[in-house]
Design goal:
single chain; about 140 residues; 3 domains; elongated
């Protein structure tokens, strides 16, 4: 959402002709961008940034730096491979993660658009089977 909002704001600025910049804020692109930023609420996520990624899994580059799609793919694959390695080493592969309540809507949006359908919400029965693998209470 945030990336799309940035694209729309840049588009509004490129298409803006004139000296009264306040008119740019009234364009459909700028209004849509503002709505997307309001929905994404990036400020609410900022306090969680150190809780969401360990230092060992920080990308070697940020997505706004590489220009080529292949570079972005390499960044994602590198982080995914390092994460899989850490999980295998700790005996936690495949991974099961808890989503903080503040991020549930954002996580659901990501799960809903995941084309491989490899991310799923767990069921209470599945979680119980992990906690009590022998079926004991």
């Amino acid at each position: 959402m945030i990336d799309r909002a940035g694209e729309l704001m840049r588009m509004a600025r490129r298409n803006f002709k004139g000296h009264d910049i306040t008119k740019m804020f009234k364009t459909p692109e700028y209004r849509e961008a503002s709505q997307l930023l309001k929905e994404a609420d990036p400020v609410s996520i900022a306090p969680l940034k150190d809780q969401l990624r360990t230092i060992s899994l920080r990308p070697y580059s940020m997505f706004d730096c590489p220009l080529l799609l292949s570079e972005k793919i390499n960044i994602v694959e590198d982080v995914a491979n390092r994460r899989a390695g850490l999980l295998k080493t700790s005996g936690r592969y495949p991974e099961i993660s808890q989503v903080p309540p503040a991020l549930e809507e954002l996580a659901k949006a990501g799960i809903d658009v995941n084309p491989e359908k490899c991310i799923q919400w767990s069921t209470p029965a599945f979680v119980s089977s992990l906690i009590n693998p022998d079926g004991s209470q």
